[in-house]
Amino acid sequence: MRRTVFPHKLLPWLLLAPQLAITLIFFYWPAAQAFRQSVLREDPFGLSSQFVGLANFRKVLNDPAYLNALQVTVVFSVLVAFFALGIALFLAVQAEKIIRGKGLYRTMMIWPYAVAPAIAGMLWLFMFNPSFGTLAWPLRQLGINWNPLLDGEQAMALVVAAATWKQISYNFLFFVAGLQAIPKSLLEAAAIDGASRRHAFWTIVFPLLAPTTFFLLVVNTVYALFDTFGIIHAVTGGGPGRSTETLVYKVYNDGFVNLIMGDSAAQSVILMVIVIALTAFQFRFIEKRVHYG
Amino acid sequence: MMKTVNLWALGLIALPMSAQAQTEISWWHAMTGANSEVVEKIASDFNASQSEYKVMPVFKGTYPETLNAGIAAFRAGQAPDIIQVFDVGTGVMMGAQGAIKPVAEVLSEAGFEFDKSQYLPGIVGYYSSPEGEMLSFPYNSSSPILYYNKDIFEKAGLDVNTPPTTWAEVWAAARQIKESGAATCGYTSTWLTWIHTENFAAWNNLSWASNENGLAGNPELAINAPNFVNHFQTLADLAKEGVFVYGGRTSEAKQNFTSGECGILTESSGGLGDIVKSGMNYGIGQLPYDDTAEGAPQNTTPGGASLWVMGGKSDEVYKGVGTFFNYLSQTEVQQYLHEQSGYLPVTLAAYEATKASGFYETNPAREVPILQMSGKAPTANSKGVRAPNLPQLRDIQNEEYENMLSGQQTAEQALNNAVERGNAAIREATGG
User: Fold this and answer.
1) pLDDT digits (tens, 9 = 90+) for A185-224
2) Which of B24, B157, B210, B340 would bridge with B220, disulfide CB 3.0–4.6 Å?
3) Distance, CA of B289 to CA of B132 (rounded, Å)
4) Domain B23-142+302-356: which CATH class?
């Protein structure tokens, strides 16, 4: 094969420049700022600043509130990823069975994705707010002591539901595409061999969907970790107590409400390390086991 | 095409000229709805009253968002000239010497006589340094008061013309409301930190923290004293019975009241607008006090926000800011602000003028917070509270209160935790 050699040396760099500039300005520069801030102790206005080495990190890692946020984040992410993937897969499989109105059904399913996280949060809040929620009243009539303002588990259920609801559409879209890519002949062969629908799903469809599922697992985990800030901010504000305060929410709260810049920066550096490690782990170890047909 | 270019060039030449003629003063604020219209009106009236300066108000979001925007802008060397900072951020601003310029200094340098005795003492004391220098201009001040639903009171067999005055009376009335079935909830409250902790201390002449509640030095919290413990334990017990309903950390509980769910509410006097808008049959009373506390009721402390002047600006700008603040403290302007927004007037003259106009006879509720705040000379316990990290302290208290109201801990445990964690946070913030 012949290698294409471009005569220009400057042109490729020129074409790359916009993307490089964006990456440098919007990723590397803030990241460097976070690193710098994480080893300093400063007043909010930056009038006095003192180098403290790793003291901020030591303080953050010894803070029981931080360990609590870590635990909340793990519970929240696992629940959101599990329900968002599970429900979307179920709905996608059901959508395949529909003969008439398939297009309409799919369009309706994709709608919630266009809703901004904060708005999604507000919608759920309006439905389930204990004092004015339209669905809180029937819950109480059923004898459930519904009060997410004070009950941490109910508050967690509410933010998980809102975050899941918003992500289902996205997952649904990918699962529908994934299902369409599975050769019909395989399913027909299974049917001729007398396999039940359920059996065929678990032994043929589910394994063949693995690349899609894996991709969505990565996307959903990152979503639950970072893109759910708006939902938590709108619905619970991290409360009651600290029962829905995730790592990202704590970075915001310590930095922008409590104005402790050093702690907040140290937390975002730790978050950066967690994300890099998580992504590397997922791609190195889990991807190897995924069957790419 | 040529014509457009020419116009552009003309515009570019003309721009610096107009800037030279008029000094522009930026004012970042956090007022929404009716209150933001008041800001716009005051600024445009001031601009029309003279030609040297032009005040330009810019809405920057919620109180914390405005403060953050100001801090970020300062760090980038782009600070506004005037910034509105909420009561809780006062300690943060006071700690930032070099970033701000005291208002008393701005006013006297601009050639205006600054007479502190003309301002309401309770308000001015809160925004002054320990040495007594006024640091920021009190723009909008409010105080917590009691609201009650007259229809619910009637149904429960309570006297619709006598609001409860002590906490014991509130608990009794709330119980009666719940037990008689007049409403599903007897009592609710916004801001457990501001109303039930900071103002509870001041109104009952109890210490919130050492060093005059932090006004004279770094505070050590004292909110686990017996009066606080008893008060919060009662709240927790009533929450269990469903007589008290918790609405949230800030002003969410107002909804529980306007929807008719709860019969009694304690809320900021600034919240009156929404209650009027709901069209309910309401009554107003002073903030209840604890009759087991000696010397209660004392006086309440101001909430709301004040205007801070940022440091490092030109003399010309400071002169303009001084002129603007002088305009703001004029009686007619203050009277307009007070009657339109429901916030308190900051000068005694404006208060007297409002009184003379008969405004309080038709709106008696508007006078309650003023009487409450300036009825008695403030003591060391009632000048207000200050800490370098008050937002964080409130956060800690809210967490502990929520864990208490959900039955995970007693009031004593909650308050002990709040004191212990709060003091640790103060030490951390002051580098001690």
Assistant:
1) 988 898 898 888 888 899 889 999 988 898 898 889 889 9
2) B210
3) 29
4) alpha beta
